[in-house]
Queue: 2 jobs
Job 1
Amino acid sequence: MKKRIGISYTRTLFENYWNWFTPADLGNDVELMELSFEKNNTGDIYQCDGFILTGGVDVHPSFYKGKADYNNSPDAHQAERDVFEAKIYNYSQLHKLPVLGICRGMQLINVLQGGKLIQDLDNGNERHKKEESDKEHPIIAEKDSLLYTIAGSIRGHINSAHHQAIDPNGIGSNLKVNAYDDDDERIIEGLEFANKTNKGFMLCVQWHPERIKEKEHNPFSEKLKKQFLTAIKETNMKKIVIINPATEEIIAEVNEDTRESLHSKLISLRVAQPAWHEIALADRVKALNSFAALLEKNIEQLAAVLTAEVGKPLQQSRNEINGARARIQWLTDNAAKYLSDEIMSSGDGMEEKISYEPLGVVCNISAWNYPYLVGVNVFVPALLAGNTVMYKPSEYSTLTGLQIERLLKEAGMPEDVFQVAIGGKETGETLLELPFDGYFFTGSYKTGKYIYEKVAPKMVPCQCELGGKDPLYVADDIKDIKAVAAGTADGAFYNNGQSCCAVERIYVHEKVYDEYVSEFVKEVKSWKIGLPTEVGVYIGPLSRKDQLSVLEKQVTDAAYKGATVLAGGNKMKTKGYYFEPTVLANVDHNMSVMKDESFGPVIGIMKVKNDEEAIQLMQDTEYGLTASVYSAERKRAENILQQINAGTGYWNCCDRVSAALPWSGRKHSGFGATLSHIGLRAFTRPKGYHLRG
Ligand code: NAD
C-alpha cells in the first residue's frame, strides 16, 4: 500500500511543491495527492498519511481577529482556502500525521493553534518581500529544536518572500520558535511544537525550501524534505481498501478512525450540541434544505462515486439521490409541525404541554445498500430535532459517507455538528463503547441483535432497522398478468435485490401461476446485464464479493431439494461480482432460499391453492418488514395484510418507501421507526409540562 502526501493547492507556483519530490524521493512507496480548496475534495484528506500546507495568499484576518486593511494586503483573500486547510491541519492532529507548514502554511498553523500574525514586517520588508525573485538571507536555528536536529546546522541560508509574519507576541499554544532572522530576533523564521509528547512530526518554516536556489545542497531544504518523507513512511494508519465491484479495481484507500479519534469526535459533537439546539428550528431546516439543493447540484458526481463503490447502475444511483432529496423535503416541511411544543390543554389556570427535547449526541451505524436513503432517514430528523450526529457509513460505502459530510458542511452545517466515523466492524464496536445518547442502526439482524444487547445497559434509546424476507402474493383475480409480472420482478431485482424491502419470495395463486411465471421469466431475461456505468444496464455487480457464495449456496440447496432453475443460477465468469438474475420454481419452505434473506438477484416462486395457504406461508418467517398483495380487490388485499405481522403492507405495489409513513420492522426485522412524524420524533425525548399560573 502506498503512502500518500497531500499537498494543499495554491494558485501561486503549486508545481514547485509537487516537483520538489523527485521520482527518487517517492520511489514505489509514496505518492502525491492534490488537496484543493477549489475542488473542496475534503474526502481525499482521509486518504493521506501526511500533509504539506503550502504558501500563497495571506490568511484572512478574521481568522486571528487581525486588521482587515493593511499595507501589502492582497486584492482578495481566500477565506475558503483557510477553512479547507484548517480541515487538513485538524485532521493531521487528530491522527498525529506529519505536517510541513511552508510560509503561509506556517502562519495558518500558528493561527489555528490560537496565535496571531502581524500584517507587515515594516522595515523588515526590505529584506523579506519577494520582488523579481526571492530575497535571501541567513537565519539562526535554536539549538534545542527539531529544526536544528534535522538540518544539523545553527546557521542557515534561506530565501524569503513574505511581508505577513508570526506576531512575536502571538505565538500559538504549544508552539515554539525554532529559528530567527539572524539580523532581527523579532522576525520568526520557523515554528514547531514545544511539547512533542503524543504529537506527530510537525515543522513550520517561513522560507520556501521547495524553490530555494541549489535546494539539493541546502540542508534547510533537502534534509527537511528527507525527514518529512521518513516521517511519512513511518506512519501506520489502518486503511479501508475500497474496491469497485464491477472492475475489482482499488479505487481508494481511506484511513480508518482510531479509538482516540472517535473519542475526540464525540467530545466535539458534545460541545457543539447545545448551540446547535439553541439555533432556531427554521435555521436547521434551512441548512438541511441547502444540503438537498447541493445533492441536486452535484448529482452526477455523487452518482458516479456511489456507482463506483457499490456497483449499482448509474441511473439507480441518480434515483437514490433524488429519492433522498424528496425525503428531506418531507422531513423539513413537517419539522415545525411535529417538533414544536404541543399545548395539550389549557384552562383554569393550568396549561399542559409537551416539549420535544433532542436526545443529545446520537450514533448512526449504517448500511451500504442505500447509503443516501438509509442515512437520510436517520441523520436528517436527528439534526432537525437538535441533536449532533456521529454517522458511521458502512465500510462498503465510505466514499459516499464522506461526500455526505462534505455537502452538509458546504450547506452551512457547523463544523462539529456532524462527524463521520470511518471503518468497519471494529469502528462500530468502539462506537458501542462510547457514551452516546442514542443508537440508530441499519443493517443485518445478526449485527442488530448484537448492538441491541451491547447498548442495553446504557439505558439509552436504541433503534434497529434490519433485514427482511419479504413475501408477495399474487391472487387469482389480477387483470394484467404481464404488467404484474414485470412490476413484481422489478420489486425483486431492483438494486440487484439488495434492498431491505426487496421482494424475497413470491406466492402465486394456482389459477394464474403458469402465465405469471412465464411472463416473469421473460421479463427477467430481457434485462441488460453489464457495467453499471453503461446506459440501459439494469443488473450490475453485487456490492459485496462474499454475497456471491451465499447466493450460490441458496441456489444449490434449492436445486438439490427439487427446485427448478428457470433463469440464471450461477456466478458469472466475468470480472466483477456478478451473479445471474435467478428465478427458481417448485420451491418450498424446506429450502434456505424461502427462509433466509438472499439480499441478491435470486427469487423463489411458489404455487398456492388459495389465500389461506398464501397467508400461512407469508407468515412462516422470522422477519417482519413488508408484505405485498396483488389483487383486483382492495378489501381482499387489506384483509390478508392485516393478518401478516409486518411493519408495512402493500396493495398492488411493492419495494417502496414513503417519507410520510413509518418505516418499521417487526421480529427479526427490528423495532422502532424512521420517517413520518413518528420518525421525526424518534430522535427526541418528550417532556411533559404542567404549568400553573
Ligand atoms: P451489516 O450488519 O453487516 O453492517 C451494518 C453496519 O454495522 C456497518 O456499518 C458495519 O460496519 C457495522 N457493524 C458490523 N459489525 C458490527 C459490530 N459488531 N458492532 C458495531 N457495528 C458493526 O449489514 P450490511 O451488510 O451493511 O447491510 C445489509 C443488511 O441491512 C441487510 O440485512 C438489509 O436487509 C439490512 N437493511 C435494512 C434496512 C431497513 O431499513 N430495515 C435498510 C437497509 C439495509
Job 2
Amino acid sequence: MSSNLLLVDDEPNVPRAIRRALRSEGYKFLIANSAAEAFDLLRATPVDVVISDHRMPGVTGSEFLSEVNNRYPDTVRLMLSGQADIEAVIDAINEGSIFKFVAKPWKNDQLKQVVREASNRAQAQQVDEHTGWQTHKLFKTRLSALLEDQPARIVVGEIRNLATAWALLSKDQRRALADKIAQRCAAALGEPVIELASLDRGLFALALDISEGDDLINGLVERLSAPMVIDDQALRLHIAAGYVDSTAVGDSTPGALIRKAIVALTNADIEGTGYAGYRPNSMTSLKLRQSLEHDLSSALARSQFFLQLQPQVDSGNLRIRSAEALIRWQHPVHGLISPAQFIDMAERNGFINDIGVWVICSTMQQLETLAELGMGDVRLSFNLSPRQLTDGGTASWLTVLRQYAIEEPELMNQLELEVTESTVMDCSESATRALEEAKELGIRIALDDFGTGHSSLAQLNALPLDVLKLDRSLIQDIEINERSMTLLKHLASMAKDLGLEVIAEGVETQSQVQVCKDLHCDLIQGYAFYKPLDVEDFYRVLRSERHGQH
Ligand code: C2E
Ligand code: CA
Ligand code: CA
C-alpha cells in the first residue's frame, strides 16, 4: 500500500521540490496552497502523511497541524521549518501534534528518511495488530470519502465465538484465522468497495456496492460459518451479520451507519435468519428487550404460549419413542419469539414459575391425549430452567407434579424432566432433594446439554439420573474435529457404564446418524429426522407411523 502525502505550503515551489526529492519513493501526492484547501482535501481523500510549512499566511503550520491532529488523529504530521521558528516546533512536538520536523534547507536523503518513517508509522496505525485488517478509524475515513461520491451498503458481521476460537489458537494461528476470514469474505462478495476492517471484539465491517442483492450477505454468513481448519485445529465460527444502505437513512455519518448496521445485527437474532437489514423503524435491541419484558407478564393470560413436540427416534428401528416439549411464544407484533430469548427474562423477573407450571400442565395434557389415542407408551420430556431448580422443595413445579402424581399416577412414568448439566453441577442440597423427590413420583430425570460443562463421574453418580442428552455441539463437530469424536465416544461409554440411557441431540445429517448408531446411543433427536412439530402434526406423524397411514 503506497502512502498518500499531503503537502501544504503557500509557496508552490516548495511542494514541487519535495515531490522531486521523493519521486522514486512511490508515494501519491496531494498539494494544497492554504490550510483551508488542505482541509478540503482531507475531507475528500484518505491522507497518511501531512507535510506543512510553518510559515503560512493566516495560520502558522503548528496551528494548522494541531487542528489536523484534532480532526484526523490517524494522520502522521511533519513540519518544515527554519531555525527561526524552532520554539514553535518544539512546542508542537511536545504537544504531540507533529511527529517530526524537517529543517530548511533540507538534505534530500534526510527528507527521504523522515518521510519514510512517517509513512511506515501511518501504515502501522491503520492496521489492526491482531487481525492485520484495516482499523475502525481507517474504515470510517475511507467510508466518508466513498459516500461523497456514491451510496454504499455497510455490512457489520459478528464472530460470536471469537473468544473461544482465540483460546484454541496460538498468536500465529489467530492471524491465519483472520486471513482465512478475509479470503472467505472476498470469495463471497466479489469485490467489496471497502474491504474488511476490524471494529471491536469480534465485530468487523465491509462496504459493498449498493446495487448488490442481500443474497450476497446471506452467502457471506453461510461461507464464514462453514467449518475450517487452522493448522490441525478444526473450528466453526458462529457468524451473524447486519447491514444498512446509506440511502435508506438520510444523511448519516460513517459512525451512525455502523451503529445502524449493528442494530440490524441484533435484529438478526430475533428474526433468526443469521442476517438482517436495518429498518428505520426497527427498535434497538434494548428497546425491544424492554418491550418484550413488559409483554411477557401478560403473555400467559393472553394464551400466547404454545408447545411444540420434537420427536426422538429409536436408533435401532428409527421409530418415534418419545418427544421433547419445547415452549413457543407467539407475540402479536414481533411474531414467534425463541425460548432462548425469553426464558432468561422470565427467570430474572420471576415469571418462570408460572411459565414452568404452564409447561408441566400442557405436557401432562399431551400425555393424557396420547393415552386416549392408545399411544400411552410415548414418553414426553419437559425442561426445567436453572432458577426453577434453586427454589428446591418449595418450588411450584414440584407442587404441581405432586398433585398430578396423586391424580394420574399412571402417567408419571411417561414423564421426563430435563435439567442442564451446568445447573445441577453447582446445585444445592435442596435442589438435589427436589430431583430425588420428582424421581420418587415416578418421573425420569435427564441431564440436558451434557458435554458442555465439566462434570465428573463422581458428580454424575451423586445425582438421581436416568438419561444423558449429549449436547448438539459435540455432535455437530464430529465431522470436522477428531477430538470431538473421541470425546463423544468417551462420554457415550461413560453413560452406558452408569446404566444411563443416551439421547443424541441436534443430529442433522445422515453421517451423524450413523455415528450415533455406532456409539449405541439409544435415541436420536434432531433435524435429520424431525424439527419441533406443532402438536397436531406430531399426532399425525405418530399415527401414520403406527398405522401405516400416510
Ligand atoms: P434445549 O433444551 O437444548 O432444546 C433443544 C433446542 O435445539 C431446541 O431449540 C430445538 O429446537 C433445537 N434443535 C433440535 N434439533 C436440532 C437440530 O438438529 N439442529 C439445530 N440446530 N437445533 C436443533 P429451542 O426450541 O429454540 O429451545 C432453546 C432452549 O430453550 C432449549 O434448549 C431450552 O433450554 C429452552 N427451553 C425450551 N423450552 C423450554 C421450556 O418449556 N422451559 C424452559 N425452562 N426452557 C425451555
Ligand atoms: Ca432440553
Ligand atoms: Ca439440550
